[in-house]
Amino acid sequence: MYKSLIRPALFKFDPEEVHYFTFNFLRHFCKLPGALSFLRSKFEVKDKRLESEVFGLKFKNPVGLAAGFDKDAKLYNELSALGFGFIEVGTVTPKPQAGNEKQRLFRLKEDSAIINRMGFNNHGVEEMVERLKKNKNVLIGGNIGKNKVTPNDKAVDDYVYSFEALFDHVNYFVVNVSSPNTPNLRELQDKEPLKKLLNTLQERNNKKANPKPILLKIAPDLTDDQLIDIIEIVQETKIAGVIATNTTISREGLNSENKAEMGGLSGKPLTKRSTEVIRFLSEKSGQAFPIIGVGGIHTSEDAIEKLEAGASLVQLYTGFIYQGPQLIKDINKKILEKGL
């Protein structure tokens, strides 16, 4: 029904406006008596065999929602009812910011892809904290970034601010230095700036009574040498793991008319490369740390490939938009079928 009726209707309109429309619809629908229970009964797969412990956290299933969908933690309880095992909110910055000028979100239907240049639009970390206080036992990841106006030599301060503000309200953190839509942000992936950032956060983390897992989200466009550096940095800073991968700046093999738009590309064209990065990190590190696999998961087979390549968990974004919530159920059922 989603792919035959709902998606064709939604895809007739501007993608960003559709995003807000579906958010409002889901919010109001879930206020109806029995609505959350109905969604859970339709999409949730409950089975002890899906449960796992990764970086010290217990996940009810390994399929999560990637950052960028619920930027301001407005709908994590409702989205969880669609069968997700965990929800990652953000990317959030210390201060509210409008992001880049519209139009900034583009569908590439022929390629089953999306290009976005949103630019970390969000209402700021303080507002997010107030929403997360209403959490009803959803496992939450907090994806943190820097404000656009913050120079790179002051970026650490932004990450520390959001880390401290969110600490009591999320289960794990993700350091986002890999979005292509904030000027110069990706320079923070260079070895020395990245080590400084992660060491600073880990020092703060280790002073807490109960430290939280910190993960690094990386770009798919890194070279093998840069990925080796990432492995060394993860092991040296002792962060909990890596999310592979963010969106790509590559436009190789695209057919859609919007392919020349600036921004990060997500969806099917990223499937192969993100899996390659997962496999490389897993093999070269000797499976030394957990990896969350994300990028181009549009079928249950795509998810299985990432898990078999070395991912401990997977996340959806563009595949969720193109395939609908049935994809979450299909992946979990396929995991059980494969005995993973």
TrEMBL record:
<feature type="binding site">
    <location>
        <begin position="116"/>
        <end position="120"/>
    </location>
    <ligand>
        <name>substrate</name>
    </ligand>
</feature>
<dbReference type="InterPro" id="IPR005720">
    <property type="entry name" value="Dihydroorotate_DH_cat"/>
</dbReference>
<comment type="similarity">
    <text>Belongs to the dihydroorotate dehydrogenase family. Type 2 subfamily.</text>
</comment>
<dbReference type="GO" id="GO:0106430">
    <property type="term" value="F:dihydroorotate dehydrogenase (quinone) activity"/>
</dbReference>
<feature type="active site" description="Nucleophile">
    <location>
        <position position="179"/>
    </location>
</feature>
<feature type="binding site">
    <location>
        <position position="267"/>
    </location>
    <ligand>
        <name>FMN</name>
    </ligand>
</feature>
<feature type="binding site">
    <location>
        <position position="181"/>
    </location>
    <ligand>
        <name>substrate</name>
    </ligand>
</feature>
<dbReference type="GO" id="GO:0044205">
    <property type="term" value="P:'de novo' UMP biosynthetic process"/>
</dbReference>
<feature type="binding site">
    <location>
        <position position="217"/>
    </location>
    <ligand>
        <name>FMN</name>
    </ligand>
</feature>
<comment type="function">
    <text>Catalyzes the conversion of dihydroorotate to orotate with quinone as electron acceptor.</text>
</comment>
<keyword id="KW-1003">Cell membrane</keyword>
<dbReference type="Pfam" id="PF01180">
    <property type="entry name" value="DHO_dh"/>
</dbReference>
<dbReference type="InterPro" id="IPR012135">
    <property type="entry name" value="Dihydroorotate_DH_1_2"/>
</dbReference>
<feature type="domain" description="Dihydroorotate dehydrogenase catalytic">
    <location>
        <begin position="50"/>
        <end position="337"/>
    </location>
</feature>
<dbReference type="GO" id="GO:0006207">
    <property type="term" value="P:'de novo' pyrimidine nucleobase biosynthetic process"/>
</dbReference>
<keyword id="KW-0472">Membrane</keyword>
<feature type="binding site">
    <location>
        <begin position="317"/>
        <end position="318"/>
    </location>
    <ligand>
        <name>FMN</name>
    </ligand>
</feature>
<feature type="binding site">
    <location>
        <position position="143"/>
    </location>
    <ligand>
        <name>FMN</name>
    </ligand>
</feature>
<dbReference type="GO" id="GO:0005737">
    <property type="term" value="C:cytoplasm"/>
</dbReference>
<feature type="binding site">
    <location>
        <begin position="67"/>
        <end position="71"/>
    </location>
    <ligand>
        <name>FMN</name>
    </ligand>
</feature>
<feature type="binding site">
    <location>
        <position position="71"/>
    </location>
    <ligand>
        <name>substrate</name>
    </ligand>
</feature>
<keyword id="KW-0665">Pyrimidine biosynthesis</keyword>
<feature type="binding site">
    <location>
        <position position="91"/>
    </location>
    <ligand>
        <name>FMN</name>
    </ligand>
</feature>
<feature type="binding site">
    <location>
        <position position="176"/>
    </location>
    <ligand>
        <name>FMN</name>
    </ligand>
</feature>
<keyword id="KW-0285">Flavoprotein</keyword>
<dbReference type="InterPro" id="IPR050074">
    <property type="entry name" value="DHO_dehydrogenase"/>
</dbReference>
<dbReference type="InterPro" id="IPR005719">
    <property type="entry name" value="Dihydroorotate_DH_2"/>
</dbReference>
<comment type="subunit">
    <text>Monomer.</text>
</comment>
<keyword id="KW-0560">Oxidoreductase</keyword>
<dbReference type="GO" id="GO:0005886">
    <property type="term" value="C:plasma membrane"/>
</dbReference>
<feature type="binding site">
    <location>
        <position position="245"/>
    </location>
    <ligand>
        <name>FMN</name>
    </ligand>
</feature>
<keyword id="KW-0288">FMN</keyword>
<protein>
    <recommendedName>
        <fullName>Dihydroorotate dehydrogenase (quinone)</fullName>
        <ecNumber>1.3.5.2</ecNumber>
    </recommendedName>
</protein>
<feature type="binding site">
    <location>
        <position position="296"/>
    </location>
    <ligand>
        <name>FMN</name>
    </ligand>
</feature>
<feature type="binding site">
    <location>
        <position position="176"/>
    </location>
    <ligand>
        <name>substrate</name>
    </ligand>
</feature>
<dbReference type="InterPro" id="IPR013785">
    <property type="entry name" value="Aldolase_TIM"/>
</dbReference>
<comment type="pathway">
    <text>Pyrimidine metabolism; UMP biosynthesis via de novo pathway; orotate from (S)-dihydroorotate (quinone route): step 1/1.</text>
</comment>
<feature type="binding site">
    <location>
        <begin position="246"/>
        <end position="247"/>
    </location>
    <ligand>
        <name>substrate</name>
    </ligand>
</feature>
<dbReference type="InterPro" id="IPR001295">
    <property type="entry name" value="Dihydroorotate_DH_CS"/>
</dbReference>
